[in-house]
Sequence to fold (690 residues):
Amino acid sequence: MNWLPRNRVVVPVDFSDESLAAVDTALAFVDDPQQVHVIHVLPELEPTEPGVIWNTIDDASRKKNVEEALRERLADERFQGLHFVVTIGDPGHEIADLAADQQADLIVMPSHGRRGLRRVLLGSVAERVLRLAHCPVLVLRK
Amino acid sequence: MTRTIALAIVCGVVFTLFGGAACAQNDSEAAPPVDNFEDADAALPVVPADDSTAAEESGWMDAVDDFFGSYLVGPLATVLFYDFETDQLLGASIPFVVLWLLLGALFFTIRMGFINIRAFWHAVKITKGDYDDPAGSGEVSHFQALASALSATVGLGNIAGVAIAISLGGPGATFWMIVVGLLGMSSKFSECTLGMLYRRIDADGRVSGGPMHYLRDGLAELGLGPVGAVLAGVFTLLCMGGSFGGGCAFQVNQSLGAINTQLTFLDPQRGGYPWIYGLVLVVLVGMVILGGIRRIAATAEKIVPLMCGIYVLTALYIIFSDASKILPAFQAIIEGAFTPQAGVSGGLIGVMVVGIQRAAFSNEAGIGSASIAHSAAKTEEPVSEGIVALLEPFIDTVVVCTMTALVIVITGAYDNPDWEHLRAANKGAELTSAAFGSVISWFPWMLALMVFLFAYSTMISWSYYGERCWSHLFGQRASIVYKILFLGFVFLGSIVQAKNVLDFSDLMILSMALPNILGVALLSGKVKRKLDDYWSRYKSGALKSRRD
Fold:
């Protein structure tokens, strides 16, 4: 897979098996795990949910929880040194923005292949990243 | 860009389907003068509106309303209110959905070994925070989860519904309401325990739970995967529909009826402008669900327990202000429950049906919606939140509804000839308001404010339920579509008179009991095992109380 070595790679992870596998793919492009930025994008909080009403959950605690979860899921030796980034907003934009900020030269991500109404309503994150990214995007198919 | 257009189209189609229909007959003189479901279901069974009346009215909207009447309300009402010919056999009609809710509650009460009674004190202690586990997973404490669920439950059913029940069934209906409130506690326990057992906790610590999860995952565990998937899907759709109707348009419509007695410029019958009320609510709800202003939602929900408290205290003041009437009132309630009353159709069973139905509408036990809110509780003991949830029908029905009933009986609002016009028109909220006003002249103002706050907090809570279901189907990022639709229904609720559409939306809430009770009954073995395990640990003192 390592046909073009990269300096910095961004991998979005949504905790699905495919996205976690994409981290391995990303590692194949670099010499050091430190060159890989793993990003998870959270949706905005709903003002009507009980945790918000009672002020028991906030964005800071959510980010912390996700970072812990990422460290736990990617605890293996080969993942040591990965950068973890958690942001809140639209996944397509957040992923492309991070790649731009980090001057990444590759984004690696799976495509879920949503169909039907979900596709109409949610669109494809991969598609949006493709459109917005300043760098090459490697979309992994199942 | 394409996505935005697609969203707009989906929005437009759904809105035309539901909303256009809701507009229908708005200006139609021919529409029957039934302004809401409280009225409609009072005269059981619900019958689809007469198609011939609408024919003379022009416009596609009438056609859509007719479509609702003939193809949606009609069949739904036929199933839900099918009475197994009981009106021939017993002289009173027992609608299927009433029987379903009652038998469900009875089954859960027996299956769980009268959990509603034996766990009552334990429930109070858990709610007080004796067993709070700050390290547990979840979002809010037991008390906070209960308060959030209550804000969706306590509402116009407690104020308007009770008055209608007593107008129709006499004081005896109160007794049967209390009985159903007590039995409903077991339904709530079962569904909320399941909500906890099958809730999903996301990586960021947020919780999602409810019938859409436990029906699908729970029944899959029993090897009934396809059944569970169907029940969960049906529930999700009905819950979204219910949130637009009973949780939204209906609340606007009903609270407007109570408020325009005080603010006459909103009353369409006095040349007022009801749409002003609709617009104000669109702004107030929109600020929360679209604008993300958290403080308003938080204040509205937190104020519900306070409002409940003020309401109950005022009722108690009225009840005790003339102590000589207390005993006769209880006498009237007990006697009315067991002896056929003059003027009540269907005799004794008629009284029972009215009481049972109003209680079930009010406390929503068996409907499944409350388990969405309760699933957010912070604990590692699923059963403990189920036990907290059983307080909900108790507070809603056994306490608050009974207070309304006692005030109505004691002030004579149920048989005072002066108020016959309110009873005849089934104007429940106005009757309750008049009953309170006869003792405390300024209280109708207070009541109007309470009705407004109850309706508002119910809408906020139901928008959460509906949004959860929508996100479950389409993903959270699509919830903007849901929110826009919801606001549309807020506005429509202020201007609609279309009986079929309002009936349809409330029938959806009732229909939620069909997949939910069936699924919960199938899963009751699991609930029972978890309960027995929990209870033995509680009895042996193995559960850690913070007071120990």
